[in-house]
User: Which sequence fits this backbone?
């Protein structure tokens, strides 16, 4: 479908994407505003209705805990991340929605489907030699209020089941990583597109 | 193959399934008898020769540790779960069989093959902010004494390699999740069946 | 391409492989020299320019920390393992290269691509009931200085995306596990080869 001027996608560098939706909601994905390309800081963000974090690495979690505490967005995330957040978010994380891969939740008229990703999702940054284990890495297919669907892959290698994402959800726009060091590079991403691994439609 | 009256499958709600086998053994899978649909409690279970738990979430582990301690079934499970169980089961878990995806073990004349699943497998329920990390989520293909094979998918999104499960093991019966929130929903499960993702035979 | 006498592959049992490259470098993979088949000990190893460990189980990590501390090889590994190693390697692990699946790094003229694997990657061996979580299990495609490429699968079940490995990287040699208990067995490995899951070329 054609997108009108009521929808904007703004890339803030790295995996950080802001979406203003046809229903006048704001979705933030992987809100690491501290990345070198971002022209604004997390403190300057004043709207967030839906927050999505693909996995528990610092360059994707970014300032999500502070944003979530201050703006109290709905926050659909993988089960382990939801448990961990409940102890860290102001208010106890009552707007966190634990879910898992293959599932879909609705936030108002916006649909959020959690997909797989081929990456990892933890750290060893906690004091006292305790690992930070936040489940598995994921991507998201988001359906806006008017039916437009996009896919944010998070960090991932190319994987064959991107074809199932295309076939089941037919996203019309995809955000793919191409760093080539922590994720697939441009050649692998081209394969994903070329083989309709992502978009089986059209 | 046709199943005779010597084999029964009983669903106790959620992912909890009991199998009485042609060889008069009892297999319990994901024994969360505490789920609202279960007509009996874990305490009332008096037979269990083989125990299978697909992943380390409470609604699948259920009362497995208590059952395993009391009835001492053979318990094939993923490596990390086997290590964790060894310190928790009465008797030190000598009947626990650590294994991993793609492997097959025999318990008497019953074959247990561990398959992949697209989900997660941990928690943050332990005291002191230590994660419960129990490896990766799995499914199982079980071959009964008479050669009948079934597949219990555990919690999972639909994934393309279900086709390999079908091709390699040709299960004649499958238990699939369709909750649509923590797992795939009916539409995705239908795709799995429709494309013979699970059963390449016939 | 044909390999000359300037390249050798030596299998030391289990998943432990040593490669002498056309550029006179030594690559060690999954260096568990303590395995029963190994004719030499880790202490006797005196060359290692590149160290690769597929996942955090003891039979693959083996004596890697001691070898890495003593011989200071470049050590490309998954993010979580790199963080964990930084506190354990002599010198702080400055030669460790954190990366992730789908990414490629160069060590001199040798290319290292990290692939997925269908297994698990942790343990419960640390004191005090803290899990050892080392990210996700991986495999590696290595391109030698002359362009020859091989694939070391680590521990894994057969998976459909082996086909993408074949298609993208066209390895001419593959090391596959066939244990059948902690990994796939010979039958599953034959399927991988038969369907060109690994090598789409030729």
Assistant:
């Amino acid at each position: 479908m054609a997108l009108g001027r009521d929808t904007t996608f703004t890339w803030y560098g790295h995996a950080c994407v802001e979406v203003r939706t046809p229903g006048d909601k704001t979705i933030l994905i992987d809100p690491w505003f501290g990345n070198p390309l971002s022209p604004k800081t997390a403190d300057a963000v004043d709207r967030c209705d839906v927050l999505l974090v693909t996995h528990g690495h610092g360059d994707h979690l970014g300032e999500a805990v502070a944003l979530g505490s201050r703006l109290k967005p709905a926050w659909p995330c993988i089960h382990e991340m939801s448990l961990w957040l409940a102890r860290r978010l102001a208010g106890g994380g009552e707007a966190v929605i634990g879910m898992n891969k293959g599932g879909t939740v609705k936030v108002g008229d916006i649909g959020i489907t959690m997909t797989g990703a081929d990456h990892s999702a933890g750290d060893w940054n906690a004091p006292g030699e305790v690992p930070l284990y936040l489940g598995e890495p994921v991507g998201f297919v988001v359906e806006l209020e008017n039916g437009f669907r996009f896919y944010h892959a998070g960090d991932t290698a190319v994987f064959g089941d991107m074809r199932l994402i295309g076939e089941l959800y037919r996203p019309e726009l995809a955000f793919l990583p191409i760093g080539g060091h922590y994720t697939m590079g441009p050649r692998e991403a081209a394969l994903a597109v070329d083989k309709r691994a992502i978009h089986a439609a059209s």
